[in-house]
## 1
Amino acid sequence: MSDALQSPQIEEEVLFKKRQHWTVLLPSLVLLTFLSLFIITAALGIFTYFSLIPTHPDVLFSIIALTLLFTSTVTAKTIMEWYFHVYTLTTHRIMETCYSPLFSHWINDVLLDEVRCTEIDIKTHGFINQYFNKGDVVITFDRPTHEEEFTLSNVKNPQEVGQIIEQVFKSNNSERPGIIWYRNRFKAQPRSGIGGARA
Amino acid sequence: MNALKVAFFIGVSAILLAITIYNLFYLFELRKAKHHYGFSVPSHMYAFMHINTFLAAMSIFLFSLFFVFTVVAQE
C-alpha cells in the first residue's frame, strides 16, 4: 500500500499502519508448543513403558507426525491472522482491516470527516502491558456508527497513537472548535506534525 | 492384515491428506491475497507455508512406506 492514496476529490495520506503488539501471539504459541511437547512425550513414554515400539512403530510415527503437522499448521494460521490484522490511519479515515485467509475478511472503515470524536481513551492494564508499553486506544464517536467505539487493541505505544489520532481529528474539524473533547491523561508534549510517527 | 490395521492406515492417511490439502489451499489463498487485496506476504512466511505443505505431503508418503515396511512386511 503506497503512502499516498489518490482519489478524484481528495488526496489521502497514510499517517500510520499498526499491528497489534507481537506479544499477543505468545500465549497461543506457548500453549501450542507445550501441548505438542506433552502429547509427543506422553506417547513416547507410553510406548516405551509398554514396549510397544517394536510391534507398533507406525502408530507412534503417526501420532508424532500428526501432532507436529497440526502444531505447525495452527501456528502458521495464528501468525498470519496477526499479520493481516492492521489498523490504518489516514488524513481522512481510520480503518481496521482483518483478513484470515480461507476463513474471513472484513474492513471497519470510519470516515473522519463524517463523525465527531468525543473521547479518546488510552488503556494499559497489567505489568506485562506496562513493561512492553502496549495498550488499547478507544475512540468514541458522538453519532451512531455501526460501532460507537473504535478500538485499536494491544497496539505499541498507545499514548503516541492517541496523540496522532487527536491531531488528525483536530485538523479535520478545525472549522468546529470546541466540539472535540480530548482527555490527555499522559500530558505529553505536543508533536511537531501529525505524520511524525509511523508503524 | 486385519480390518483394524487397514482402517488405521486409511484414517491416518485421510487426516494427513486433509492437512496437506488445507495447507495447499491456504497457500493459494495467500497468493490471491497478494494479488487481489494488496496484502504483501513476507518471503519467510511464504517459505514457512511451503515447507509446512511439503512436510504434510511427505508425511503421507513416509507413513505409507513405514506402514508397508513394518506392518505388511511382518505379516
## 2
Amino acid sequence: MIYFLGRYLHPHFDSFSFLRLVDYISARSIGAALTAILLTLYFTPIFIRYLHRRGFVDQARATGIASASDKAGTPVMGGAVMIGCILVSCLLWCNLANPFLLAVLIGMVWFGVIGLCDDIAKMRARSGDRGMSESKKLLLQAVFAAGLALFIVGPFSPLPASQAGAFYVPFLKAPLFNSIWFYSPILFFFVLVVGNSVNITDGLDGLAIVPSVFVVGVLGVFGYLLGNAIWARYLNYPYLPGTGELAVFCSAFAGAGIGFLWFNAYPAQVFMGDTGSLAIGGCMAVLSIVLKQEALFLILGGLFVAEAASSQIQDKIGIRWLGRRIFLRAPLHHQMQHNGLAETKVVIRLWISAGILALAALATLKLR
Amino acid sequence: MRTIRRVLLTGGGTAGHVNPALAIGSVLAGPETKFLFVGVRGRAEEEIVPREGIPLKYVRASGFPSALSLETIRFLANLIMGTAQSLILLVRFRPDVIIGTGGYVSAPVILASSLLRKLGLSQARVFIHEQNAVPGKLNRLVGRFAHQVLVTFPETLSYFPQNGAHVGYPLRKRIAGIGRDEARQKLDFSIPEGRKVVFVFGGSQGSRVINRALVDALRYLLPHRDSLFLVHGVGLYKTREYDAVRDTEERLRRQYGPVELEQIESFYLRRAYFHNIELLYALSDLVVARAGAGSLNEISAMGLPALIIPKSKLPGDHQVMNARAMERAGAAEILYEQIAPVNGKLDEFIDGKVLADKILALLDDPHRLEEMRRRSRSFLNQDALARIERRIRGTDAEPLREFIPGTQPPETPPLLGNGALLQKLERALAEQGSAFRPETVIPDPRDLEYLKSRAGSLLTSASWQQRNLGVKLLGLLNADDKLPALLTLFFDREPAPLFQRLLGGDFKQVGFIRRNIMTALIRLNRLTPEVEKALLLGMEDPYYEVRAEASRATAFFGDRLSSPEPFIAALQRLLKDRVIEVAAAAAESLGKLGGEKDVLPILLGLKNARFWKVRAAALRGIYSLVERGKLTDFSLLEKEIPDFILTSTDFTPQFEIKSAYSRLMESVSEKKEGRAQ
C-alpha cells in the first residue's frame, strides 16, 4: 500500500518527493524487514498467551529423547503469526501486481493452511503422532505443485518464453536442458520434497528458522540480481524481469524470521508448528523455482536436504523395508543428539553448517 | 406351513460344505419336491452330489483374496460371471427356497437371488447355514441378503445381529446311535476285548502334523499296549510335498526297529480312509481330531470326549475358535500346534511325548472322561435338522435372534489381535517394570496358551514384519518353550536378496528380528549352552543394534554364564566399535561380568574415551563392580576416576517453574486425599 501510495503521490505533489524512495527495491526491502520484525516482536507474545489459553500446546511425541519431553506444553502454531506479519509487511511494501510475488505468497499460504489443519487435528487428537494423514497432506500439496507447474510452463507464465522449461545447474552458464516435458516433473517433485523438508528439520528450538532465513536471504539476493538487466548480464544469468520484487518479500521474511527467533530461541516459548514449517517450505520451493535455482537448492538448502533425505531413507528404506536402522537415529539432528550432543550444541553447529552452505551458494554467483 | 416344491442347494468346495447342504435337503424332500444343486466344477461336490441323485449345475466362483492383488481382479470377474450364470439358473428353476452352506460357492447364487428379489422377479426365501464359529468373509457379506442365517455355534450370532438364528449343525443321518456291540460286529477288523480305543484322524485328507506326532507318540504309548488300541485314519492326501500314507510308513520304519514294529502292530491299526467312520466313533473311548465343524459335530453327536488339535493359520483361526468353544463347554481338551525346528527349518509340530502324555492322562481319568462324554453330548444340540426344517417351512420363524436354551455362550471378551496384544503387553511392561508378568494381561491360562501358539505361528510367516511381531510377542508372553524356535531363527544366516544387500540389508532374518530375539532372551530368562552361543554370535553381528542388545543380554545373565572369559573378550572387542552406542553398552555390561583383575583395568582404560557416553557407561560399569563387591583396592580407583569427567557435550535442562509447579500439585493432591479419608 505504501508502494502504491508513494507511486501515486510523488509525481504529483512536490512535498511528497521523498516518496521517490519507493521506486527503489533496496529502500522498500529495508522497510519491509523492519516492519516485519516489529510486528512479530509485538504480536508473538500476545499470540503465545492466546494459544496457551486455547490449549494449542505441543503434544509430546514418542521419540525417546528426554529433552523433548521436558518441553511438552509449549504452544505450537507460532508460524501463523510469522506468516501473518510477512503478509502484512508485503501488503504495505510490495507491488502486489507482480506475478512472481503472488506465486510465492500463494505457495506460502497454501502450505501454511495445510500445516494449520494438521496442527489443529493434532490438538484434537491430543497426540503428536496423529495429525492429518500423510497421504492427505501429500495430495493437497500435489494439487498445488501441479498447479504451479502449469502456471510456470503454461501460457500465463511470468517467465520469458525461452526460460520456461530451462533447468540450470550451478557453475554452468547454459541450461542443462530446456524442455517443458522434462522440466515439469522435476518441478512437481521439487515442490513436494522442499515443501516438506523444513517440516522434518523443525525438531529442535531455533533449528529450522535460522537456516530458513539464510536460504531465503540468499534467494532474495538472487531475485534482486536476476531482476536487474545489468547485473544479470554481468553475472551471465538470464534476465528475469520482475523478480526484483522478490527481494522485498525475502526481506520481510528475514525480518519476521528474526522476530520469531526472539521467542523460539532455546528454551523455546513457542514452536512454529506445521503451520510455520510447511509455509516456509512452500515459499522456499516457489522462490527457487521462479528464480530457476532448483539445482542450487541442493547446496543452498543442503541442511534441509540432508535432514529430509536421512529421515526418508531411515524410515522408508531402512525401517519399513530392510528391517534395520540405516542411521543410528534420523533425522540428522536426532542422530547428533543420540551421539551425546546437547540440543543447544546441535542447533548452533547446524546453524554454522547452514551458514557455510549459504555462503557457498552465494559464491556460485560469480563462478560460472 | 409352506409348501416347498423346488429347492436350490448351493455350497461346496469341500465335503464340509456339501454334506450339510445334502443333510438339509434330505429333510425337505417329499414326493413332489424337485432339487437342484449349484456348485463349482472340479471340487468335492462333483464327486458327492451325483451319488445322491440330485442334478448338479456349475457356476464360476473363487475365494475371497487375502490381499489386494491380481487375485482380486480374478475374484471380482468370477463373482460377476458367476452371478450372471446364477441369474439364468434361478430364472429357469424358479426355486421356492434357496439354501446356501457357504464356501465361496454359494455367494454368486445368493447375490443373484437378491437381485431378482429387488426386481420383483423372485419370491424365493434364502437361508444360509454357517458351520464355523467364525464365518467366512463372503458368508458375512451375503448374510445380509438372506432371510435367515442359521448358525452352528451360539457365538456366531454376533456376526448376524439382524437375521441370525442358532440351530446347530445338520448331521448326516447315518451318524446316529449305534451300539458298541453292533459296531463291533459290523467292523471288518477286530479289536481285542478290554482295550481302550483311541481313534486318531485328521479329516478325510489327513493331517501331516497329527500323523507325524502320532508316529512319534507310539514310543511312549508302547508300554501300555496291553490296555490300549489305536485306530489311525492317515488320510488320502497325496501331493509332491506330502503323501500321507507314504510319509507315515517311512517315518514308522525310520524310527522303530523290527521288534518294536511288531509290538506296535499289536495295538495300532492304520488305514488311509475309513468308509464307515460311524462304527469307529461308536467304539472309541477318546477321539483325537482336527477342529473342522463337521468333525466336532459328529464327535458331539456321538457324545465322545475329544482331544482336539486345531489347524493353525486358517482364516479367522476358525478351527481354533471351534475348538475353544468345545473346550469351554468342557467337552474337549486342546493341543495347540507349536512352531519348532524340524530338520533345521521352523515348522508346525506336535511333540510325540506331549501327545502321548495327554492321551494317557485322559484315559487314566475315567471320571473326567465320563464328564467330557456327558458334556460333549449336550455341547451341540442334537435335533438341529428338525429345527432347521421348522425354520425353512416357516412354522418357527420368530423370534430370530435367539439362542437354543442352555447354550448361551459365556461372556468372554474377544481375543486381541496380534498387534493390539503387543501394544497392551508393552504398555503393561512399561507400567509394571520388572514385576511384569504376561498373566497380569492375559489372566486365563487357556487364552495364554493359545496366544503363545498363535505368536509362534508368526515365525514362519513370509513377511519379516510378521516374524518380527512373533518374536516380540513370544518374549513378552514368556513363551520359553519357543526358545529353540527363536534360536533357530537367530542362527539362520540365509542372506537377503542381492538388491536389499546393496542397500544395507544383510540376512533374511532382518536386523530388527535378530535384535528382538536378543531382547526376548532377556525376557525368557533361560540360560542354555545354545543361548550362550547365540549371545557370542550376537556380539559379532553385522548390525549394530544386535551387538548392543547382545551385550545387554550378556550383562543380564552376568554371573550365571558358564565361563565369563569368552564374553569378556567379546565385550572388550566391542569397546572399539565404530558405533558409540555399542561401545557404551559393552562398557556398562563389562561391570556385570568380571572383577578387579580382568575387567577393572579395561574400564579404567576408557577414561580418555572420546565420547562422554562411553565414559559415562564405563563409570556405570565400575559402579556395578563396586556394588557387586568385586573390588578391594579403592585407592587406585579414587586416583583414576576423576580423569573421567573431562567435559561433557550434554546436560539435562531443568525448568525451575515446572518443578515448583509439580511440587505444588503433589502437595495439593496429598492434602485432598487426606481430607477424603
